[in-house]
């Protein structure tokens, strides 16, 4: 075999180099293409509301509504209580991972958030909150209007990290979850009837939805565009409500469920109206009643055994401080619909998140294809 000349060696080296570069480019192109296919449709996830979506903000405020002690979080990665009111993850965590954003949504009040965590979104929600300021007066939670003030602080941080234009784009492409309302009915109408002196049920529902409308308008004015607004769950099926109303055979409180259904049909209509009013917005009603009542009515179909008591303690009344490290708990929370007397188990949250993924998320997809084509 003849020894290659200097020139030949140079050619070989260049050829090798050329192929190397070419291959490198091919890999980059393939990576970029597949990345485009699986790219999250949303830049980030922003969350407002109550304990159904509070991932730990109440750890940092003075309130008894805290879930940062065991047995809360016992099935969370690392088995740590984070302040989430369940044995594991919440719906925003599941949705953030289905949307390829991240695996868990941190609370905004966590003082140790990285820039990356801020860029991909946080929760401003607070357990005990609602759309009625009287509700937060009762629970000492962060009211929804104070959640907007926190959001403004967040926004200035975001601008500092990404610059004004990029921050605006991130907000416009953010998936915004709004989930509250149950506490308003429990703390001001059914169990502590302070608002009953002022409003009948119809008028109270309208009052709350007026507040909700103002809330969404304020977020829109600050740059948010894509809203998933959850309706009410079957409030009459919460073990706490069943206990308080002494329901025979621990059946759900039917009139409270009926009120929730009426509220939800009104909300669905109201959100269409809000969307029509706010140019370029998507304000999508997000059903949680139907998937939850189906689990409660046909638990065996989904692998659940207990529907009317929580896993924590007697399951009749325990929640927050009364569900704690010395409270006996059930062995397998995934057989229970409710974790404590008010909040679902992680297994239920995961079912509902899957339902939202199938039944709700495409409504945003359509909007984006339509807008950006
Ligand atoms: C924040 O991080 C510091 C250093 O890692 C740690 O000492 C501190 O406990 C953290 N604070 C919280 C609230 O997580
Ligand atoms: C509820 O109150 C409103 C006025 O606030 C009244 O117009 C309406 O008729 C009442 N509805 C019922 C069912 O009593």
From TrEMBL:
Coiled coil: none annotated. GO terms for molecular function: hydrolase activity, acting on ester bonds. InterPro entries: GDSL, GDSL_lipolytic_enzyme, SGNH_hydro_sf, SGNH_plant_lipase-like. The keyword Cell inner membrane does not apply. Keywords: Membrane, Transmembrane, Transmembrane helix. The keyword Membrane applies. The chain crosses the membrane at residues 16-37. Belongs to the 'GDSL' lipolytic enzyme family. This is GDSL esterase/lipase.
């Amino acid at each position: 075999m003849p020894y290659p000349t200097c020139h030949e060696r140079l050619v070989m080296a260049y050829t090798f180099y050329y192929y190397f570069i070419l291959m490198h480019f091919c890999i980059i192109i393939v990576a970029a293409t597949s990345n485009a296919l699986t790219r999250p449709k949303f830049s980030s996830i922003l969350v407002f509301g109550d304990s159904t979506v509070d991932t730990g903000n109440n750890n940092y405020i003075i309130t008894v509504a805290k879930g940062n002690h065991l047995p809360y979080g016992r099935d969370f990665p690392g088995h740590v209580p984070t302040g989430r009111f369940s044995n594991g993850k919440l719906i925003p965590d599941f949705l953030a991972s289905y949307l390829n954003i991240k695996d868990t949504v941190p609370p905004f009040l966590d003082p140790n958030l990285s820039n990356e965590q801020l860029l991909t979104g946080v929760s401003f929600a607070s357990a005990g909150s609602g759309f009625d300021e009287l509700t937060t007066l009762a629970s000492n939670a962060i009211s929804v209007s104070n959640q907007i003030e926190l959001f403004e602080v967040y926004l200035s941080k975001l601008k500092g990290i990404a610059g004004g234009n990029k921050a605006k784009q991130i907000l416009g492409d953010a998936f915004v979850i709004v989930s509250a309302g149950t506490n308003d009915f429990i703390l001001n109408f059914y169990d502590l009837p302070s608002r009953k002196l002022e409003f009948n049920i119809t008028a109270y529902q309208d009052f709350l939805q007026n507040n909700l409308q103002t809330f969404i308008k304020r977020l829109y004015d600050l740059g948010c565009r894509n809203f998933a607004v959850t309706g009410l769950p079957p409030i009459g099926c919460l073990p706490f409500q069943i206990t308080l109303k002494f329901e025979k055979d621990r059946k759900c409180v039917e009139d409270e469920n009926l009120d929730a259904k009426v509220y939800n049909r009104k909300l669905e209509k109201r959100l269409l109206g809000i969307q029509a009013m706010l140019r370029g917005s998507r304000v999508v009603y997000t059903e949680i009643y139907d998937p939850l009542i189906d689990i409660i009515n046909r638990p065996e179909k989904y692998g659940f055994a207990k529907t009317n008591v929580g896993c924590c303690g007697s399951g009749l009344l325990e929640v927050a401080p009364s569900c704690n490290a010395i409270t006996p708990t059930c062995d397998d929370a995934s057989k229970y619909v409710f974790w404590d007397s008010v909040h679902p188990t992680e297994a239920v949250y995961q079912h509902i998140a899957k339902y939202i993924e199938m039944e709700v998320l495409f409504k945003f997809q359509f909007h984006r294809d339509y807008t950006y084509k």
